[in-house]
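User: I've been going back and forth on whether these two constructs are worth ordering. Before I decide, could you fold them both?

Assistant: Sure. I'll take them in the order you sent them. The first construct and its structure tokens:
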Amino acid sequence: MNAIKQLFNAYIYGSMHVAMTVLALVLMTNHMFRIPFDWAIATFAWCGTMFSYNFMKYDGLFRVKKTAGRRIKIIVALSTVALAVAGISFFFLERVTQIIAIVFFGLTALYTVPFFPNTKNLRNWSGIKIYIVALCWAGITVVLPLIDAGIPLTSDAYLKFSQRFLLIIVLILVFEIIDLKEDDPHLKTIPQQIGVKRTKVLNLIFLALLFFLEFLRITIDYRQLAANLCMVVATALFTIYATPNRPKYYTLFWVEAIPIFWLGLVVLFGQKLF
């Protein structure tokens, strides 16, 4: 049991779970726009996410107790492999996709590292973190697959980008509710500014908007609509029951698994992924 727990912790804290979430959203985009599976995009998204998230968490990782040293070494090794694989897959992307990917990587770097003296990184800019993360996730999981497949950015593409942006905002807000006791007050997260109850109401409004935006699609797929409804209801329940007293796994595993659950619903309802 101890070995299983260690593997599970390596999976969670090594950012493999969040990488699976990003991959699930990429596959959702493939499904929605009938894009054939592209190993280069899938690999770049998975490995790039794993490396980026571990890179962003480096400062925190090295401040944990010494007993976690072995885990840190394992995460560093896995991150190095992920970076190498992401680098290889990068060269199999279309040129325009590579340029857009570099832009998002630049945002990730700015999020972590202050590029100018006496300045903060984007992570510490009051109130901006949530929008940078949502923009990067929506861009990587919607824009990159479409651009690489040569699909024009139609109204449906902008609609899906907006829905994906809203979904990530919603998931981050659940994280911020759980982390309320630990977050620095200077971060000015939404729960810090408006309280937990109002944050939950805001989340439910965003989820309703996300769902009803589907009716603006050029062609409405009612099986996809049913999958969306199940995903929205599940996310709403996680929002309603979120409190600062919940254990970390509430968000680190269950909330981050919502996009994976969404992808599973697509399969369950008999739809082809790509």
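The second construct, handled the same way:
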Amino acid sequence: MARMSAFQRLVTKYQRDVDFLIIYIEEAHPSDGWVTTDSPYSIPQHRSLEDRVSAAQVLQQGAPSCSLVLDTMANSSSSAYGAYFERLYVVQNGTIMYQGGRGPDGYQVSELRTWLERYDAHRAEPRVAG
């Protein structure tokens, strides 16, 4: 939940300039699988799209105010982006501009914040015509 809080602060700060999107993929620690003791939720492994929708609704209650979509049951987004189980990206005009490390250890909201701050500062620099 600390990561979600940090992500929420980032969304709040940059929401006027950046479109944020959460893609909900398969559950990393399902209650009927590899259980972790620090999970605030008890979500079983998704066996249907309806299960994934229900789990995403739980996530959305504590998620930032940004769009939330679901991965397919074949986990095509997770596979395409190597998101297993969480990862941060910046995509601009179809090009990956930033790719964070794989979660849980490589998932660093502070690293994304630094990237956005540099990008924002670069955009604000005056341009001189030559």
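Notes on the second construct follow. The radius of gyration is 16 Å. The helical segments are 2-14, 49-62, 76-81, 109-124.
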